[in-house]
Write a structure and sequence with these properties.
This protein is α/β, with parallel strands linked by helices. The protein has 9 helices and 16 strands. Helix 5 runs parallel beside helix 6.
């Protein structure tokens, strides 16, 4: 019997339930995947709390890696036994197996373990589009990255190093600062002790940075704006502390004619060719060892409630996975 984490009402981690489920056979355009590992992402908590609406009852999670067990009619890109990973809707990744649209799958090279794939597919593809699509970064550029010891942060700093980009990262404590430095972050600011925008200006001869990458949202928005150089870009790609405030167009002019964007991964992997290109570059870096994926928290799939509590408490460092 297959099992899954589901929720029947929105709320705290306690609403997550471990349930027996019927999976069935894949229909046209679908596959059945047996999961080997499931990714844990902060965005999962948004569905659980209702910030991101979902019809109830609902499954949980959007990222996992495993093996194709069956394919439905019309599926030509995958076959039984293929190693795959994925990220994206529909919800339901917190499960031992599931039926899902084949179009969401990405073939996983033998060089990358399932657990590594589950820990990095969303974070890695996010990093890929942030560094390769959002802004024409040049060797020698300096950027500001919030949550530098998070799952995206640790991949981002390593990849930026390969591109010759200097990263100023923010973290909450010295332990996380050490982790960020070990993964290539050039300068680390403890936002609990320092004025981030002031420190950024000091590190950039008063200019600020051409790009700020902000996954925190509400509590960092003002600081991020104050750190952007004239005609630079603020990339708000997450809202861990809550949604960003309404944007005042005149404020953007006052801050130096700066730009603000709120990108979503789905729009950068919607085109199959672009998704393949972003995934291919990511897999090449990870498979060759140029980028390492640290998994610092591991939970059994039926421990999802504890995993969510740890994630929201801020004690998690880097990536977390749920073992199936």
């Amino acid at each position: 019997m297959a099992h899954a984490i589901r929720f029947h009402e929105t709320g705290g981690p306690e609403v997550l339930r471990w349930e027996s489920v019927e999976v069935g056979d894949p229909g046209p355009g679908e596959v059945r995947v047996r999961h080997e590992a499931v990714g844990l992402n902060f965005a999962d908590t948004y569905f659980r709390t209702g910030l991101y609406p979902a019809p109830l009852p609902a499954g949980m999670g959007v990222e996992a890696a495993g093996v194709v067990e069956a394919v439905g009619a019309g599926v030509t890109d995958f076959r039984e036994g293929d190693r795959v990973t994925y990220t994206g809707s529909p919800l339901g990744a917190y499960s031992t197996e599931r039926v899902m649209p084949a179009e969401h799958l990405i073939k996983l090279p033998d060089s990358i373990p399932f657990e590594t794939a589950a820990a990095m597919t969303m974070r890695g593809l996010t990093t890929s589009y942030l560094l390769r699509r959002i802004w024409p970064l040049q060797e020698g550029d300096t950027v500001l990255l919030h949550a530098a010891a998070g799952g995206v942060g640790l991949i981002f700093s390593q990849w930026a190093k390969l591109l010759g980009v200097r990263v100023i990262g923010t973290v909450s404590n010295e332990q996380k600062a050490e982790v960020a430095r070990a993964h290539g972050c050039d300068e680390v600011i403890l936002y609990t002790k320092e004025d981030v925008a002031q420190r950024v200006r000091e590190l950039t001869d008063g200019k600020g940075v051409p790009v700020v990458y902000d996954s925190i949202g509400a509590t960092t928005y003002e600081t991020s704006l104050n750190s952007v150089a004239r005609r630079g870009l603020l990339v708000c790609f997450g809202t861990a502390s809550g949604p960003i405030p309404p944007i005042d167009a005149m404020q953007l002019a006052v801050k130096g004619s700066v730009y603000v964007t709120r990108p979503a991964l789905a729009d950068y992997i919607a085109d199959p060719a672009e998704k393949a290109a972003l995934a291919g570059e990511l897999f090449d870096h990870v498979g060759s060892g140029r980028i390492t994926i640290g998994i610092n928290q591991r939970y059994a799939l039926d421990e999802a409630e504890k995993a969510h509590r740890d994630l929201e408490s801020g004690i998690s460092v880097g990536s977390s996975v749920l073992a199936v």
